[in-house]
Every structure is written in C-alpha cells, then in structure tokens.
Task: inverse folding
C-alpha cells in the first residue's frame, strides 16, 4: 500500500480520517431525523444505519443497494414502517442537495479555473453530473409545490405509454397494422374491414 501511494503514508491516514468524519456526520444526520420522528436519541442505531448504507452502496451497481437495507434495519430496530421508509429517502435527497450546493459554489468561486480548463473530457462530465444530480431534488420540489400539475404530467405520459402498448398488443394479436387514417387495416385483400383504434377488440377464448 505504501508503494502505491509513494511512501506518503499521511495521505492514507488523511483519507481514512475523511471517511470517518463523513460517517460521523452521516450518523449525526440520521440521529437528528430519528429524534424528529420518534422523539428519542438513538446515535448507535444512526451510526449502524449509516455504515450499512455506505457498505451496500459501495458493493452494489450504481450505489443503489444502501437504502433498501437501511429501511429493513430501521424497521428491525423498532421504527414504524413509514418512518423506516422515509428516513433513507430523506437522507439520500439531503446528500444530493448538499452535493449540488457545494458544486455550484465551487463552480462560481473557481470560475477562473474552469475557464482555463480546455479539455472537454473534464468539463462535459462535470456539467452533466451537476445537471443529473439536480434533476431528482427539483422533481421532488416540483411534486411538493405543484402536486396537481405534476399529477397531470405523469398521467399524460402514463396514458401515452399505455396507448402505445395497447396498439402493439392489437397488432400482435390481430395481425393488423395502423393506417394513415388511424385505422387498423387487414393486410389480406379480401378483408377490407376497418377498425378504429379506440374500438376494443374482443379476442376469442382459448
């Protein structure tokens, strides 16, 4: 290990210290959320939940395995199911919001450094990562501030998706294809029946 870091062992100590410090603050965050939810201080449980989340985030693809195990562990330690499911989600969102705020602050305070970076392989991932991290908190805020509007947007996309699936199901089941007029036209010459898209198809029983 010392050969890999060039004999500068203090960098290894600093890295371990930073990880421990991050885990400590993560534990404080969960301890505060547990206290707000249950009215009790459970720092040991908060530390164990934080450690479990970090461990499973590191060993699962895309860091997506921590929250399910945190939910299970919180519920096992006696928290209600609602709180057990809400706390890891709030912890995840708080991490994303903090990351976005720190990133934006670094971009603005080091604007001269960003201007001197000419390699697009460095700039493009930085901005794409920032935008990607901003999507989830913005969607949560949008759902909270405008629930009716976002419900209509989600319903629109769900309706469009179901309609496309329904069209494909009709094509596969009946063997017809959609015409330019919006009808299903039988490919056989003798069968000239036109069926509107909105008309349901009654399939024969098997």
Result:
């Amino acid at each position: 290990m010392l050969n890999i870091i060039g004999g500068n062992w203090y960098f290894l100590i600093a890295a371990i210290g930073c990880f421990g410090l991050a885990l400590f603050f993560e534990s404080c965050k969960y301890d505060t959320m547990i206290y707000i939810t249950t009215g009790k201080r459970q720092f040991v449980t908060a530390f164990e939940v934080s450690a479990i989340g970090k461990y499973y985030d590191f060993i699962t693809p895309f860091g997506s395995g921590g929250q399910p195990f945190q939910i299970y562990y919180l519920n096992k330690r006696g928290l209600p199911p609602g709180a057990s499911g809400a706390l890891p989600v709030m912890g995840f969102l708080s991490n994303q919001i903090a990351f976005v705020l720190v990133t934006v602050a670094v971009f603005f305070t080091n604007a001269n450094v960003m201007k001197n970076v000419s390699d697009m392989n460095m700039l493009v991932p930085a901005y794409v990562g920032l935008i990607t991290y901003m999507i989830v908190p913005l969607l949560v805020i949008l759902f909270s501030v405008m629930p009716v509007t976002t419900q209509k947007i989600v319903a629109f996309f769900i309706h469009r998706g179901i309609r496309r699936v329904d069209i494909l199901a009709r094509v596969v089941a009946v063997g017809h294809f959609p015409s330019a007029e919006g009808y299903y036209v039988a490919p056989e010459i003798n069968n000239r029946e036109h069926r509107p898209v909105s008309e349901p198809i009654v399939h024969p029983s098997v």
The chain has a mean pLDDT of 76. Residues 9-38 form the longest helix (30 residues). The radius of gyration is 27 Å. The longest strand covers residues 183-185.
